[in-house]
Amino acid sequence: MKDARLGEFEEIILLLVGILEKQAYALRIAEEFESQTGKSVSIGATHSTLERLCKKGFLSSELGQPTAVRGGRRKRIYTISASGQRALIASRDLRTSLWNQYPAFAKLSLNL
């Protein structure tokens, strides 16, 4: 694994895989991304990010069962690996640490 860091988009995609569990296939992930963020995403960007996360060792995938709705085609279902979970924890911890060091944030949270 060359780079254990996650970009923001990679982090969101990885989190969505965890949220969607057995429904974590590319089209559903893209739909959930749009639903959660209010931003559109191309299926190509979703596929390339899923492939990159697999190459980094953060995801694994397997083909689901063929369905009549898909003309007998099978969906590729993604699952977070142990290293993917560690990468998410490291990303969360880094962001939390940085937020905790930001003086203006401490002042803002006291006023809320």
How would you describe the overall organization of this protein?
The protein is mainly alpha-helical. Helix content is 60%, strand content 9%. The protein has a two-stranded antiparallel ribbon. The longest helix is centred in the last third of the chain and has 20 residues.
What is the structure about, briefly put?
Helices cover 60% and strands 9% of the residues. The protein has helices at residues 8-20, 26-37, 43-55, 82-101, 103-111; strands at 59-63, 76-80.
List keywords for this structure.
112 residues, mainly alpha, two-stranded antiparallel sheet, 5 helices
What order do the helices and strands come in, and which of them pair?
Elements: H1 8-20, H2 26-37, H3 43-55, E1 59-63, E2 76-80, H4 82-101, H5 103-111
Antiparallel strand pairs: 1-2
Helix pairs in contact: 1-2, 1-3, 2-3
First-to-last CA distance: 42 Å
Number of E strands: 2
Q: What is the H-and-E element order?
A: HHHEEHH
Q: Which range best describes the helical content: under 10%, 10-25%, 25-40%, 40-55%, 55-70% or over 70%?
A: 55-70%
- Poorly predicted ranges: none
